[in-house]
Write a structure and sequence with these properties.
- The protein is mainly alpha-helical.
- It has one domain.
- Helix content is about 80%, strand content about 0%.
- It is built from 3 helices and no strands.
- Helix 1 crosses helix 2 and helix 2 runs antiparallel to helix 3.
- The longest helix has 24 residues.
- It is globular and about 35 Å long.
């Protein structure tokens, strides 16, 4: 079980890191609603994992990022 969680965590981290690089490179580009929803899903999974692993500070940081994406999503028509 620990191996499976570790693999999931690495996959989520790699995906999030790639998204960060992509976002940093194209901050002027409009992010699609689908991309925002995907980011919320992935970051929510990472926050849950951080809480389960006893990393409340990491979880809180991720929740702040999720909140920002939800605000973006809410401002869309």
């Amino acid at each position: 079980m620990a191996v499976a969680i570790s693999g999931i965590a690495r996959t989520l981290e790699a995906t999030a890191n790639q998204r960060q690089r992509d976002t940093a490179m194209s901050q002027r580009e409009t992010i699609s609603i689908n991309d925002i929803r995907t980011a919320i899903r992935e970051l929510t999974a990472r926050a849950e994992l951080a809480r389960k692993e006893g990393r409340p500070d990491d979880a809180a940081e991720l929740e702040q990022r999720i909140s920002g994406y939800r605000e973006q999503l809410g401002s869309r028509p």
